[in-house]
Structures are given as C-alpha cells and as structure tokens.
User: Which sequence fits this backbone?
C-alpha cells in the first residue's frame, strides 16, 4: 500500500486517474485541488472513504504543500491550467500554477525525499507537418508554441533540473490528447458532443485539418501507474496510442454517431498559433515497461464517451452556457 498525493484530482485526467488507482491497486489517495472553473467535485463522488480524502488548496501554497508531501510516498502532479485558448487570453494563471506551482511541489519533494511523477504534454515539442513521417520521441527538441505549452515546457525543465542538481527522485510523462468521461465542455470533443445534443452546429477552427493523436484517459492512467511502478528515475516517457485523426474526421464521426449529416458543422476563426499536428512514438514506454493501450478502437471509445455525456447531463450542464458565451465573444 502506498500513499499517493494527486494534485489536480478534481479535473478531467486527474479524476480518471484517481478512479483508476482506487480500482486497480490498494493504494490510499489524497487529492489536492484548488477547485478552479475546470474542476468538478461530482467527478469524485462515491469513492471509498477509508482510501480517499480531498484537500481544497493551491499547489502554490508552500506550507500546505509541505505538510501534504511529508505524508505521501509518491506525488503524482496533474494540477495545471490546461486550456490553450484560455492561455491566449489570460496567460498569468498559467505561469502561477504551471511554473510556480510545480516549483513549490518539487521543493517539498526534495526536502522530504519523496518520489515525484510529473504529468506533461506532447505540446512541449511544438508541431509536425501533416506529411512528416517522423513522430515525437523522447529526443525531440522542445519547441512550444502557446503560453500554455511554454509553461508546461518550463515545468518539465524545472523537474529535470531538480533531478540533476538535487537528486529529486522524479519521472516525467508527456501524453497526447486525452478523451473520455469527466472532460470539461470547453475542450474539443465534449464541446462538440454537447453542442450537437443542444442542437448547436459543431465549430471547427480554421479548415479543420489540424491533427491530434487521441488516447483514452484510462490508457493514460494505466501508463502513469506503469511508470510509477517501473520507470527509471530521471527518465521521460512519451504516452500515446497511435490515434491520429484530423479534427474534421472527429467532428464527422461525432455527427454520424449522433444521427446527423456529417457536414452539419461550421468553420470558425482559427486559434492563434494553432499547432498543425501532434503524433507520439511511444516505443520506449512499450518496450521498457510492457505498456499497451486497451482502447485501440477510437470509434468505440468515442461512442462510449458520447453515451457518457448523454447520460450525465447533470455533470456538464452547469458549465455549458458560460463556456459557449466565452467562445461566442472570441468568434469561435
Ligand atoms: P483540467 O483543466 O481538466 O484539470 C486541472 C485541475 O487542476 C482542476 O481540477 C483544477 O482545479 C486543478 N488546479 C488548477 N490550478 C490549481 C492550483 N493552483 N492548485 C491546485 N489545483 C489546481 O486538466 P486536464 O485536462 O485533466 O489535465 C491534467 C494534466 O494533464 C495537466 O497537467 C495537463 O497539462 C496534462 N495533460 C493533459 C492532456 C489533455 O488532453 N487534457 C494531455 C496531456 C497532458
Ligand atoms: O496534446 C495534449 C494537449 O491536448 C493537452 O496538453 C491540453 O491540456 C489539452 O487541452 C489538449 O490541447 P488541444 O489544444 O489540442 O485541445 P483542444 O481540445 O482545445 O483542441 C483540440 C483540437 O481541436 C485543436 O486542434 C483545436 C481544435 N478545436 C478546439 C475547439 C475547442 C476546434 O476545432 N474547435 C473547437 O471548438
């Protein structure tokens, strides 16, 4: 039994990870979460009280972080400002949480000699062209494009420096785009599913040709557990499930699965600095740790996700109108 401190556990991927840990291990979980607009406490309902507790607080609060890290065997750091579009309109919270918050956590982990796993993103590597035969690997140079991805890159580099300079017992993972239940309606897939449910036409940025490499959140969780159990200290592991799709393909699938004509979408103003394509080569993770994704059929995973949003309207409805109002202001 290990005591895990999971930051950002009331957000999308963190909540899926908490549920995965409680279902597949006998570990105890403490979640530290600030409950920003992106959090939803409903995502953590019904968890076993003897193995789970929730702490409302900020990862930039050094005193609180020190106390919680002292009581943990492993810190798994998901907390972040995570949405690119928001980072283009108000970058400051991204610097505070993603950079200063990560610094605050690794300083505490260094003091207490605590094992640390840092959750990051493939966006630190920038973009690929549509016809590039190469995919991102652990050796790809960092080249982030947005305020969000540059703060994530900064946080990765801080963790690497703390490993080298202070012997921090840390690993890092950089994952591709996640989908699945409990994802905020500001993000691409839930936005379009809930738009169609509400009779609103899906919105594609630019020409819809940008490619993302989709992975189910449960596969991300199993990869993180494998890295915590067997990953080598100081190493980075890329997580991906060979799920490349253009945004247009994804919207057409959503429309088809919800019984609409596949061209019932609108093209809207593009995101500034919009990365064209991400693609992950996860050979290192698969060869070293024997990890394999279980959700290799994207269409089936998307169908499950659509069913989840249809069946859990009480989870997403309170955020929907304000999210769409924000996008309307931005012309998106
Ligand atoms: P999210 O926005 O859904 O959730 C983030 C959570 O962090 C929220 O619960 C929020 O309240 C919490 N939080 C924010 N600031 C905090 C602070 N200062 N102190 C404590 N808690 C705070 O994000 P997500 O999509 O679940 O992403 C989680 C992590 O995974 C992030 O580090 C992100 O960079 C990374 N990641 C996301 C994806 C993806 O596709 N969503 C892919 C790869 C990596
Ligand atoms: O690659 C990993 C990253 O994936 C994570 O680090 C981020 O936290 C996560 O938000 C996600 O970033 P993206 O910017 O790729 O995700 P988003 O859901 O915002 O958009 C996915 C794609 O869809 C992107 O090309 C922009 C496009 N898009 C998005 C929205 C919201 C649209 O075409 N229309 C939309 O309405």
Assistant:
């Amino acid at each position: 039994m290990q005591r895990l401190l999971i930051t950002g556990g009331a957000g999308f991927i963190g909540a899926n990870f908490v549920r995965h840990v409680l279902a597949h291990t006998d570990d105890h979980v403490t979640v530290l979460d600030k409950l920003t607009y992106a959090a939803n406490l409903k995502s953590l309902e019904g968890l076993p009280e003897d193995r789970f507790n929730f702490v409302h607080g900020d990862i930039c609060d050094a005193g609180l972080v020190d106390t919680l890290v002292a009581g943990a065997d492993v810190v798994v750091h998901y907390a972040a400002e995570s949405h690119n579009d928001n980072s283009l309109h108000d970058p400051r919270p991204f610097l505070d949480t993603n950079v200063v918050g990560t610094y605050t956590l690794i300083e505490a982990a260094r003091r207490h000699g605590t094992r640390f796993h840092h959750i990051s993103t493939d966006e630190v590597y920038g973009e690929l062209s549509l016809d590039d035969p190469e995919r991102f690997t652990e050796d790809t140079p960092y080249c982030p494009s947005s305020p969000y991805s540059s703060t994530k890159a900064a946080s990765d580099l801080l963790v690497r420096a703390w490993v080298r300079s202070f012997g921090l017992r840390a690993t890092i993972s950089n994952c591709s785009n996640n989908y699945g239940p409990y994802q905020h309606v500001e993000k691409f897939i839930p936005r379009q599913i809930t738009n169609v449910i509400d009779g609103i036409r899906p919105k594609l940025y630019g020409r819809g040709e940008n490619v993302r490499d989709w992975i189910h959140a449960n596969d991300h969780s199993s990869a993180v557990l494998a890295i915590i159990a067997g990953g080598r200290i100081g190493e980075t592991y890329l997580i991906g499930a060979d799920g490349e799709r253009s945004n247009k393909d994804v919207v057409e699938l959503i429309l088809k699965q919800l019984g609409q004509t596949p061209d019932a979408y609108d093209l809207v103003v593009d995101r500034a600095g919009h990365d064209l394509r991400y693609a992950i080569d996860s050979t290192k993770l698969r060869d070293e740790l024997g990890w394999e994704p279980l959700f290799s059929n994207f269409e089936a995973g998307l169908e499950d996700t659509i069913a989840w949003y249809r069946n859990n309207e009480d989870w997403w409805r309170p955020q929907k109108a304000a999210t769409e109002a924000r996008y309307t202001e931005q012309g998106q």
About this structure: Residues 7-8, 10-14, 32-36, 38-39, 58-60, 78-82, 97, 101, 119, 121, 152, 175, 177-178, 184 surround nicotinamide-adenine-dinucleotide (ligand 1) (CB under 6 Å).
